[in-house]
Structure formats: structure tokens, C-alpha cells
Amino acid sequence: MTAWRYVAVDAKGTRHRGELEADHPRAVRAQLREQGLLAETVTPRNDPAQSGAGGRRVPALALALFSRQLATLLTAGLSIERSLAALVEQQEEDRVRAVLSSVHEDVLAGHGLGQTLSRHSRAFPRYYGSIVQAGEEAGALPQVMERLASYLERGQALRQKVGVALIYPAIVTVVAILIVGVLLTYVVPQVVSVFEQSRQTLPWLTRAMIMVSDAARATWWLGLILVFVGIFFARYLLTIDVMRLRWHGFLLRLPVIGRLRVGLASARFANTLAVLVGSGVPIVNALGHAGAALDDEVFRRATAEAAARVREGQSISRALKQSGAFPGMLLHLVASGEASGELARVLEQAARQQELSVETRLSALTALLEPLLILVMGGIVLVIVLAIMQPIIDMNRLVR
């Protein structure tokens, strides 16, 4: 038997909380009815949605796969309960299986799927449950899940493109740091020791390189400590809203990186809003969920301000324009969608346009970074080689 936590109300409206043991949440509800109580929520005592481990965010790839598989099962005619049971059985990752099991149990207990997903707010994005609930209320859950799965797959594909594009520059940077580190801490001292024994006056470049080499060998451990402390301190600062806002604002002002971040945030915003609006979520709520789905604090606040203006009666395009964060092309498309009454379709087009813009800028950035990194690496190695070769050249001159 499983221990279940419950929240129930009596005939006077007083809430009661406690635990009961039963094989199924429906048995818990039956026991409560015998006691004259009406159950509001019945959850396992070790509910993954409330625990620290199971409450972690479901990975984006697993969420996209879950959405696609659930859409396929629902389209084939299976009920929500049977579809969830099948997905739980075939799930290989323990953490995701625990979350899905909790969702399945809540649905069996009589809760709606969208309501259940919204309650698991630490495992699923906020907008996810709203979209599913809108699909349930409209009686079009299979179609909504198909749209949601396509949206998540496009977002995952875009993130993969960004990651793949940055792999080569990252590898070149790491290799360059390792090569320079080996040259400074091992090669330079070995070679220069020969010249020091000859008591020859060394060129200034060689003397400077010896000083850098000595400093690198003496303080490399201090450098590692500073790097780790710096990373920890930076992560702590980014948990503070004001500091995170300033940092994201600084990134947006950078020449190339800023445009790339604008494109990524705009594409994600347009994609999320398109799915929400197309699923029947009210526009003010849709704007709130679309903003919550963004990682950039500047765009999150701009979307929240736009939602407040729309609530006061402004048009969406005008509210977004006053925020000053979104690109002009997106604003024109949103205005066109409002005028034509096809906002969801136009938002999907806007998302595609922003994704293409990101891919173009990403290609240009990687095309610029690759030769630039090679040139910087070659320049550093050239300086080290010159510092080693100059004393040898001077010795040859003396011999002649």
C-alpha cells in the first residue's frame, strides 16, 4: 500500500490535511467521503513534483519526445490514462519516469491533464500545462499536442544548431590554451636554461617570456582557484534580479552577440505565443506564459510590461513596440496578424523568420571566429618561438 497526502474540506468548508494508506487515490477519496470529507487533492507522500530530485525540470529533449508520443497515442484513439501508462512503461530515465508516474496517478484520481501538469510546475514549463488545459477544454487535445510537439522539436533543433556551430571555436580555444600552457611551463624553461648557463645577455623579448613562464609556473594553482571562485561568484550574482538584468542588457548591447540573443529570444517568444494563441489561451495569459518561457531577463520584463498594457486595452503590437526590446520585423508581422485575425499563423511565420535570421548570423559569427582564433593562436605561438630563436640567432652571429 502507498501513503497518500490529502487536502479535503468538510460540510462547513474547513480544510483538513493528513495522510492515508491505500492502493489507489480513488480509495483515498472513498475513505474521505465516508468521513464526510470532500477531497481537493490526493498526492503520493513521495510526490516527484514536490521532491527536490523529481521536481527538477524535465529535459527539453525528453519533453519534446513525450509530447510527440502522447500526440501519436491520442490520435490513435487511446485514452489519456492509457496513453500515460504506456509512456511511463517505456520511459528509460528514472527521474522522468517518476514525474510521469505522478502525473498518471493524478489523472487517474480525476484531475485534468493540463491541471496536473500545471501543478508540477518545477518539472514542466509554466506554459506547457496552460496549452494542454486549453486543448482539453476545446476538445482538441491530440491536435494541440501535435502543435506543441512541433514547437518543442523546432526549439530543440535551433538549440542544437547553436551548440554545433560553437563546438569548433570552443575546441580551437581549448587547444590553444593547452598548447600555450605547455610551451610556457615546460618548453620555454628547458630551452632558456641553456642560454642562461652561457651567461649571454638575452634579448628583451626572451627575458619577458622567461618572466611570464616563471609567473605561470608559480601561480597556476592560484589561477585555477580564481577561475572557480569567479564562476561561483558570477553564478551567485546572476541569481539576483537586478544583476541578471544588467548582465543581459550588457550582452544585448554587444555588436554580434547582442543581435544573436535578440533573434533567439524573439524566435522563442513568437513560437511560444503562436502555440498558446493557437490553442485558445487568452492573449494576456499567453503573453505572461510566453515571457516566462524566455531566458533573457530584459525580454521577460518587456513581455510582462506588454501584457500589462494589453490588459489595459492596448493592441499587442503597440504594447510590444513600447517595450523597446523586440525587432521591427516581428512587430510589423504581429500588427499584420492582429489586423487579419490570424495572429497564430503570422506568429509562426515571424518565428521562422527570426530562426532564419539567427542561423544566418550564427554562420557569419562562426565564419569570423574560426580564422580569428587561428590567427590569435598562431600569433601567440610565433611570439614564443621568436623569444626562443632570438638568442640562437645572436649566438650564431657571435660565432661568425
SSE map:
Layout: E1 2-9, E2 15-22, H1 25-34, E3 38-44, H2 60-75, H3 80-90, H4 94-108, H5 113-119, H6 126-138, H7 141-197, H8 204-237, H9 241-253, H10 255-278, H11 283-292, H12 297-311, H13 316-323, H14 328-340, H15 343-399
Antiparallel strand pairs: 1-2, 1-3
Mind explaining what this structure looks like?
- This protein is mainly alpha-helical.
- Among the domains are: 1-45; 167-400, Up-down Bundle (Receptor-associated Protein).
- It has helices at 25-34, 60-75, 80-90, 94-108, 113-119, 126-138, 141-197, 204-237, 241-253, 255-278, 283-292, 297-311, 316-323, 328-340, 343-399, and strands spanning 2-9, 15-22, 38-44.
- It has a three-stranded antiparallel beta sheet.
- A hairpin with a 5-residue loop joins strand 1 and strand 2 (15-22).
- Helix 2 (60-75) packs across helix 3 (80-90) and helix 2 (60-75) runs antiparallel to helix 7.
- The termini are far apart.
